[in-house]
């Protein structure tokens, strides 16, 4: 299906080099998903040299494929399990490809005991939650047609979120619990579906590639100006205590991610403060830091990535304010969204930090 759809995304009378560039970009995306960043960058560079607008063409192709897929099959997202800081696509199996077989042994056990098992699995990881739902019809029903796991998940993640006090005061709210009661009450599946949250068991990464035209050496008679591919990365790692690590570097994720924590100094990394606003559908994220001369503020919006809930951060603004109150806005022309990537080794750090913040 993907290949069939892909043939319709690039005009048949288009430039053959553009078609080849998109294919190279897709190979780069595949390598990046596998963690082979060096191979991915090589494909990205080749694609950009063939067509400097290849990324826009690729993203439009992906969006169109998603729209066509939605039209071809009705996907009931409200019955899908949440992403739970997981890199996997949360296909909960509630509308699975085949009928799940019953498990007669489980039918002999009380529902309360089975729900206790489900709760423990939800606290372990989202992947385990999804996998449990696929084992048999009994667990599938308990995992995604019962409010208990959703409530467990909600009470796990939302108390760890940090909300801007000024925003809450202006909206007449004194606590996050008031917000929950006002908008969702006890409808936990809808809350998880609608209410954005920051994820702690991984890292947000933005990969920026752009072309920069160089200058010919003095005295050169060449009419062709050299083109340089510039690649850099932005990293955000959030903690439940309201702090986050921010890093802008040319170092690849394979070098940075594994040991990226507060106890290990990383060059060009800063400790910042983060908070969510209850405006803009609760998904406006503000990150602040300062030095001796300036206060820096970065604003981003939490958004979905296809069926992955609250998995992406898109830029709103980036600015610096000096001691006199003069503000300068930075250009976001080359900036790209952040995508969340789960890191298993971060799990214990997040639990320890959340316990400390309590």
Automatic annotation (TrEMBL):
<feature type="domain" description="F-box protein Hrt3/FBXO9 C-terminal">
    <location>
        <begin position="184"/>
        <end position="276"/>
    </location>
</feature>
<dbReference type="InterPro" id="IPR036047">
    <property type="entry name" value="F-box-like_dom_sf"/>
</dbReference>
<dbReference type="InterPro" id="IPR045464">
    <property type="entry name" value="Hrt3/FBXO9_C"/>
</dbReference>
<keyword id="KW-0833">Ubl conjugation pathway</keyword>
<dbReference type="GO" id="GO:0005737">
    <property type="term" value="C:cytoplasm"/>
</dbReference>
<dbReference type="Pfam" id="PF19270">
    <property type="entry name" value="FBO_C"/>
</dbReference>
<protein>
    <submittedName>
        <fullName>LAFE_0H09010g1_1</fullName>
    </submittedName>
</protein>
<dbReference type="GO" id="GO:0031146">
    <property type="term" value="P:SCF-dependent proteasomal ubiquitin-dependent protein catabolic process"/>
</dbReference>
<dbReference type="GO" id="GO:0019005">
    <property type="term" value="C:SCF ubiquitin ligase complex"/>
</dbReference>
